[in-house]
Every structure is written in structure tokens, then in C-alpha cells.
Design goal:
The complex is a heterodimer of chains A (368) and B (364). Helix content of chain A is 41%, strand content 17%. In chain A, strands 1, 2, 3, 4, 6, 7, 8, 11 and 12 form a nine-stranded mixed beta sheet that branches. Chain A has a three-stranded mixed beta sheet with strand order 5-9-10. In chain A, helix 2 packs across helix 11 and helix 7 packs across helix 9. Chain A starts with 5 loop residues before the first helix and ends in a 14-residue tail after the last helix. The chains are: A alpha/beta (368), B mainly alpha (364).
């Protein structure tokens, strides 16, 4: 398995979506092999991890390559894989959708910062129901994924959609079969809104699903939902758009019905207090605010506080800095939300003060 | 002429066949390497002949010894590698087995949140898909092989034979993709609703074929496996069927046997060992197949009475979850699953060999 060089060969980030998870599936099986082959050429930045932000990283990498000639070699093998690889020091940075705790960051000598935000959406395939025509709330969604609601014309769904003609059809639940940061954020939200979910299933990158079929990667879930009548699944928003899947609107914490849009993701992020948590580990699920999308999620980058190869880390930081400053427009196009300027300032502060080379010099400040 | 060279004849090692149709050059090369020839040539030198002969024999003995040593160590290396694999698996699975105890083997729970792992659902899926695959592939494979060797017009033999070998050559991921995009929707929309409808009124069968029709699940995985196993069974059976001496079959036909009777009472008993070998090869593949199964089995850690329901297999679980398994217990549980698969394969293949041996003894 050759690592993908996203910055080199692809013109359009979105067009990668079709391939990303099929390849991901293969990559997962050959994980050890991938890990051993992941040494990138000196000029390229090497990283591995989450599939959730892969489309936007690919797009940024492409533009960055054109601007600077430096490519990014990013393997979207999943958040857990990213954490493993950065711990094994086979990559310059790891990427995860589930933030590491402050304790873990300290233990492994890692620095963590948020890169971009996005939304997870419930996608459905029910005859006669168009995109955005169905509304769900957290409790109902949890009950569907718990198997307590088994038919589309269940009273709880009908109550939320008084005008919809819901079929008497079994609900086929589709979830991820591989561990994933998307699953972490999704189950975090369900735990937050449903006591039953919290006690019976809980929050993790992989959980014991009470019902349904497992599919590999965001693309696998999207594909299974597209193929299965009466199904519901959850994917990163860009994957829903890419596959033209109808999504459901959600009732948020404030009791308002919202559609998944970049504005709704941004609204959820606006109230987050990023500085309060170590490693900016704020989970954006179920945030207050009338316009907030309840299943908003951040994604994080991990680098060493004292990297062995300071030059490589410097190149990576340059790329992230460039992405923060010049990448917001591209993030919009793919329906991600760029980090607000105030957070970017804080992150740069963190870079300056915490990432040092062997001589104790700040790695980031030497870039300026 | 040297072509029927005197030394060779004198040594008694030439049966004369070399005299016909071989070039002089080939003969000479051959002659130079003949044991007896070398010693004979030395003997002609005269006084030192005895010494020379002893030297030669010594050299040949050491050559023989080192040859034996090389082959022996090659054979032993297999055992070493195998035991290294077993050791690594056992060592890797110890944390999980210590943590879970024997519960690991008989519980169905696979919960990364609470770190409670049980292998039962994966074992069940592995065994069920294998059984379905073998139930379909073995009879079909034998019939195809029989048709190819006994009934097929000569013109068709080669194309069909090649087609079967091509089936064996298709990478498993292609089967997986085909299963997911073509077979699963077909099963979901046509076959599974039909099965649910037909078997609905019967008490036991209704739970075996219970909905909802996902399209992917244990049955779909079994079907894909059957297609993947089919070429192994077929091509090995065909090869062994061809070894049946025509005179046996002619004798059977001569006393008025039908084609079926000849197959059942002459061909099959004669080739039993080979056929079982082919079946076991297929069985091994069905037990361990990963990629194709992962695509179509549904990857759910559950044991369901319905064969239409999603399940998982040991190898699919490992492939799915290894990259993301953080935490020692989780990773170790996956390794323990690997150990279990190893044990199952060993027991199944060992059992098959044992049955075969018993059948052999009875047959005599």
C-alpha cells in the first residue's frame, strides 16, 4: 500500500471522497504495512489519522502544494490509527476527532490543537421523504439507534413530523464498523441527550451497537444507506452531500429545529470556551444557542512538544498556519467551519510557548 | 559410439533409454555427473585409484549429508515459524484472557466502552458462514467436476476449466465489492423478501429467515464464500476424477451401471482422499477469508437466530477494528480472537484428517 500523496495528484478535494474510504478499508487491513512504509520524502509533511477532516486536508494540501511546492502525505486511517502513529513517531503529526485528555498529552509529551470543525448528520433512505423533510430530536435518534424505535411510523417520529406520511417500514440502522472519531462525537451526543444510551452503550470511538449493520468508513455508511430502503445512518456532512443522501433536521438543545449548514455548525462553535480545556479538548455536541447544530464536531492535530525532527514539525506548523489563515474559504466550500480568529491566535500562542527543539528554542517562532 | 557409452552400461545405471533421441551434449553432461562414472574414470588412473575412490566417496557422502541437512532444516523451519506464530499469539492474548477469564470464550458482548470482550458472536459468524459456504460449494463443485470429466463435450472442457481457475484467481476484495454493489441489493430486493414471505408461516424456519432484509448479513457472506470456495473444490476434484483408470469405469459401464452409479460407486470411492483434500482447502479459505466477508456480513457483534441478520466473523472483526483498537485489553482481545481462529482451523482440519483416516481403514 503506498501512502496517498494528497497534495500532488488531485485537483479537487471533493472528488477524492469517492475513493477515500474504499482505500481506507484496504489501508486498515494493511495497517502495519502502511505504518512501516509511511516514511515520506524529506520535502513532504507526513501525517495520519481521522477520516472526518480528510476532504478538507486534501483540498488545503493541494492549494498549499501549488503555493509553496511542499506536499502533504496524509493517510486517513482513522483517529485511533493517527494517535497510534504519532505515539510510534512514524509521522510528524497525528489527527484525531476525539481529543486526548490533558493527562495523556502530558504523558506522551504531545501538544494538541483544533484544526477545523464540521457537522455529523443523520442520513436516511425512506421512500417519499426528501432531504430535510424529516425532523428528529436527540432522544428519538438515540431510541432508533438503541432499537427501541423499530418502525418509521412510530408515534415518537410521527409526533415530531405531524405532516409527514411515514411508511410502516422497519428501520435499518447503519453504523460504523471501524473505530472512528465520527462515532465518538455521535455517541457523545447520544449520551448527552439520552440517559438510556449513556447507561446501555456509552461514548467511545467504537461501541457495542444494540442494532444495525456496520459499514466501513464514512463512505461505507453513506453507501449502505443509499442501498438500503428504510435505513438511517450518520456521516460527516460532506459525505452526505457527495452521495446526495437525504438528511434529517435536528431539534437542538434550545428546542429549535435546525438544518445542517455551515452557519449552524459555526453557531455551535461560537459559544465554545476553547481556552478552558487542556489541549483545546472541547466537544461541540449539544451546544446551547438557537441556531446551533447539535452534532457539531471539532478535529484535532497532535504534534510532539519536543520533536526529534524539529524541521519537519516546523514545516507542518507552517502548513497549519497557512491553512488557518488562507484556508477558510476552501473549508466553506466543503461545508466545514474554519476556526475563529481568536482561537487561531491562542493556538499560535501555544505553538510559540510549548513546541521547542532540542536547544529549547521555539520551533514555531523560527518560522517567522 | 559414446551415445551408448560403455562406462554407463558397465555401471549398470543406464537403462538404455538415453540412447534414443538425446543429443550428444546432453548425454555428456549427464555422464559427467554419474556417481559410478566418476569413480570408474578415477580407477583407470592406476596406482592411486583406491585412494581416489575413497576421496570421491567421502566427498559424495558429505554432499549427501549437507543435502539432507538443508532439506531437514527447511522442514524444521516451518515448525519453528509455526510455533513462533503460536507463541506470539498466546503472548499477545494473555492480557485479554487474564482480564476476561473464560468468559472470553462464551460471552457475546463486544464492548470497547466497558472493555468487556467475548468471542462468541465472532466464532458463531465464522462457523455459520463457513457451513453455508460448504453446503453450497461442495455439491456444486463435485457436480461441475463430474460434468467436466465425464459428460462434457471435449470442446467445452477447456473453456469451462479455465473459467473455474479464473474464479480462483479473482482477488477477494473484488468479490467483496461485487457482493456489496450487485449481490446484496439483489438479495435485499428480491430473494430475502421472498424467503421471509415463504418461510413466515413455519415456526422454526420463520425465525431462521426473519427480517428486516438488510441485503447483507450471514447468508450473503455465506453465498460469497461459496463462490470463492467453489473453484478450489472443483478444480481439485476434477484433477483427481481424471486419475480414475478408464478400465474401472469401463468395467462399471460394462456391467450396466448408469453414469450416476459409476460416479457414486466407482469414481467417488476411488478419489475420496483427493476430494476431501480439495474440500479441506476450501474449508480453510472459508474460515479465514477476510476482505470479501467484511464487505457483506454487516459487521455486527450479535448472534441472531436469523441467517438474514448481520453478524461478524473473527477475521472481519480483526480487520475492522485493529487500527482503532486503543487500550491494551482491546488490542489483546483482537489477538486472542486470532488465536481462537488458529485453534478452530487446527481442530477442523485435524478432525477432517482423522475422519478420513478412519474411513480409509474401513475401506480396506
Amino acid at each position: 500500500m503506498t501512502p496517498r500523496r494528497v497534495g500532488r495528484s488531485h485537483q479537487h478535494g471533493v472528488s477524492l471522497l469517492k475513493f477515500s474510504n474504499l482505500k481506507g478499508a484496504i489501508a486498515a487491513a494493511g495497517f502495519a504495512l502502511v505504518a512501516s512504509l509511511s516514511t515520506a520524502s524529506a520535502a513532504d509533511i507526513s501525517g495520519a489519522g481521522a477520516t472526518f477532516p480528510y476532504p478538507i486536508y486534501a483540498k488545503w494540501a493541494d492549494a498549499y502544494k501549488k503555493a509553496t511546492g511542499i506536499g502533504l502525505n496524509y493517510q486517513s486511517i482513522g483517529s485511533g490509527g493517527g494517535i497510534k502513529q504519532i505515539k510510534a513517531k512514524t509521522v510528524t503529526f497525528g489527527a484525531s476527532d476525539a481529543p486526548l485528555s490533558g493527562k495523556d498529552l502530558e504523558k506522551y509529551g504531545l501538544v494538541q490543537f483544533p484544526m477545523v470543525m464540521g457537522g455529523i448528520v443523520p442520513v436516511i433512505n425512506v421512500d417519499g421523504i426528501a432531504a430535510g423533510a424529516l425532523t428528529l430530536d436527540g432522544k428519538t435518534l438515540a431510541d432508533i439507534f438503541l432499537g427501541k424505535i423499530g418502525k418509521w411510523n412510530d408515534a415518537a417520529i410521527q409526533a415530531l413530523n405531524p405532516d409527514a406520511k411515514l411508511p410502516n417500514q422497519a428501520i435499518a440502522v447503519v453504523h460504523r464498523s471501524d473505530g472512528s472519531g465520527t462515532t465518538f462525537n455521535f455517541t457523545y451526543y447520544l449520551s448527552d441527550v439520552s440517559a438510556d444510551w449513556k447507561s446501555e452503550v456509552g461514548t467511545e470511538k467504537a461501541v457495542q451497537w444494540p442494532v444495525g449493520i456496520g459499514a466501513k468508513g464514512n463512505e461505507g455508511v453513506a453507501n449502505n444507506v443509499a442501498n438500503t430502503k428504510g435505513s438511517i445512518g450518520y456521516v460527516e456532512y460532506a459525505y452526505a452531500l457527495q452521495n446526495g443522501l437525504p438528511y434529517a433536521k435536528m431539534m437542538n438543545k434550545a428546542g429549535k429545529v435546525v438544518a445542517p449548514t455551515a452557519e449552524a455548525f459555526a453557531a455551535a462553535a461560537a459559544s465554545a470556551d476553547w481556552a478552558s480545556k487542556p489541549g483545546y479538548g472541547v466537544i461541540l455536541a449539544n451546544q446551547p444557542g438557537d441556531a446551533s447544530w447539535p452534532m457539531t464536531a471539532g478535529t484535532w492535530i497532535l504534534v510532539y512538544a519536543q520533536p526529534k525532527d524539529a524541521d519537519a514539525t516546523r514545516e507542518a506548523l507552517k502548513f497549519f498556519d497557512w491553512s488557518y489563515k488562507s484556508g477558510a474559504g476552501m473549508a466553506d466550500e466543503l461545508h466545514y467551519v474554519a476556526m475563529p480568529e481568536s482561537v487561531v491566535k491562542q493556538v499560535e500562542q501555544t505553538w510559540s510557548s510549548e513546541i521547542k527543539d532540542a536547544k529549547g528554542m521555539s520551533v514555531y517562532q523560527m518560522t517567522n | 559410439m559414446a551415445l551408448v557409452g560403455a562406462p554407463a552400461v558397465a555401471s549398470g545405471r543406464c537403462d538404455g533409454r538415453w540412447a534414443v533421441g538425446r543429443s550428444r551434449w546432453r548425454w555428456n553432461v549427464r555422464e559427467r555427473h554419474r556417481v559410478a562414472d566418476i569413480s570408474l574414470r578415477r580407477e583407470r588412473v592406476g596406482g592411486r585409484a583406491v585412494v581416489a575412490r575413497r576421496d570421491v566417496l567421502k566427498r559424495l557422502r558429505s554432499l549427501d549429508r549437507s543435502f539432507r541437512w538443508v532439506t531437514k532444516s527447511a522442514a524444521i523451519s516451518v515448525l519453528v515459524i509455526l510455533s513462533a506464530v503460536i507463541l506470539a499469539l498466546v503472548e499477545g492474548s494473555l492480557p485479554a484472557l487474564n482480564h476476561m477469564g473464560l468468559e472470553f470464550f462464551y460471552t457475546e458482548s463486544w464492548n470497547p466502552v466497558t472493555e468487556k470482550f467475548g468471542a462468541l458472536a465472532a466464532v458463531y459468524g465464522t462457523v455459520m458462514t463457513t457451513i453455508i459456504a460448504m453446503l453450497i460449494a461442495v455439491p456444486i463443485g463435485l457436480m461441475v467436476a463430474l460434468f467436466l470429466t465425464e459428460l462434457c463435450p471435449m470442446k467445452l472442457r477447456r473453456p469451462i476449466g479455465i473459467a473455474i481457475e479464473l474464479l480462483a484467481g479473482i482477488p477477494s476484495i473484488i468479490y467483496g465489492i461485487w457482493g456489496l454493489f450487485v449481490l446484496a441489493p439483489f438479495l435485499q430486493q428480491t430473494v430475502q423478501p421472498f424467503l421471509i414471505e415463504v418461510f413466515g408461516p413455519f415456526p422454526v424456519l420463520s425465525s431462521v429467515f426473519a427480517g428486516p432484509p438488510y441485503g447483507i448479513g450471514i447468508l450473503t457472506a455465506g453465498l460469497i464464500l461459496a463462490i470463492m470456495v467453489l473453484p478450489f473444490v472443483t478444480s481439485i476434484s476434477r484433477d483427481v476424477f481424471e486419475t480414475v483408470p478408464p478400465v474401472l469405469k469401463e468395467a462399471a459401464y460394462g456391467i450396466g451401471c448408469t453414469t450416476w452409479e459409476t460416479f457414486r460407486y466407482v469414481v467417488l470411492p476411488y478419489t475420496r482422499v483427493g476430494v476431501v483434500g480439495g474440500v479441506m482447502l476450501g474449508l480453510g479459505r472459508a474460515l479465514g477469508e477476510t476482505m470479501a466477508v467484511t464487505f457483506v456480513i454487516g459487521n455486527a457483534h450479535r448472534i441472531s437466530t436469523s441467517i438474514l441478520a448481520p453478524g461478524t466473523t473473527i477475521s472481519a472483526t480483526i480487520a475492522n477494528e485493529f487500527t482503532e483498537a486503543d487500550g491494551d485489553i482491546y488490542t489483546s482481545s483482537l489477538v486472542a480472537l486470532g488465536l481462537l481462529l488458529f485453534a478452530i482451523t487446527f481442530v477442523v482440519l485435524g478432525g477432517a484428517r482423522y475422519l478420513l483416516q478412519r474411513a480409509e481403514k474401513k475401506g480396506r
